[in-house]
Amino acid sequence: MIKVPASQYELTSMLIQSSTPDLKSLEKLLLIVLSDFGNEKGEDIYPSLSTLSDKTCMTRRSVINNLKSLEGKGYIAKFTGGVVDGKNVTNRYFINLEKFGYDYDKKGNVIAAASAS
Predict the structure, then answer these.
(1) In 10 A of CB 11, how many CB atoms?
(2) Lower Cβ count inside 10 Å, N or C end of the chain?
(3) How far apart are CA 72 and CA 11, in angstroms?
C-alpha cells in the first residue's frame, strides 16, 4: 500500500525517489525544490522566481520555462499572484499528487488511490 506523506519532508523524499521518466532533470529538480516550500499536501508553495533561481542554480528564464513545462505536464498548478495595492504578489503553486498515485477526498485531504481490481 502506498503511504500518504505525513510531512513536507516525506513529500520531498517521495518526489526524489519517484520514477518520473517524462520529466527532464531540471524539471524534476525544480519540482523537488518547490516541494521544500510547501506542506505535506504539496500546497502553500509561494517562493519568488528569484528564490527558485537561487535554490536551483537556474536562470530566471530557465525557472519560468521549467515551471511552464511542469504545469503543461500536469505536475503543478499555478495560481497567479498579480498586483495588490500596487505591490507584486508572488504566484502560488500546488503539486498535483495524483501524478504520484494519490487521490483527494471531498475535503481535499490526500489519500492513497484506490487500486484498480
Answers:
(1) 24
(2) C
(3) 21
Give the span between the Cα atoms of 92 and 71, in whole angstroms: 12
pLDDT band at 114 (very low <50, low <70, confident <90, very high): low
Helix %, strand %, coil % of the chain (to 5): 40, 15, 45
The C-alpha cell that represents 26 in the structure block: 531540471
48 Cβ neighbours under 8 A, 6+ residues apart: 90
Q: Please, are residues 26 and 58 in contact by the beta-carbon 8 Å criterion? A: yes
pLDDT (mean) for 76-81: 90
SS3 of 108, please? coil
Query: Mind listing the pLDDT tens digit for each residue in 22-74?
Result: 999 999 999 999 999 999 989 989 999 999 999 999 999 999 999 999 999 99
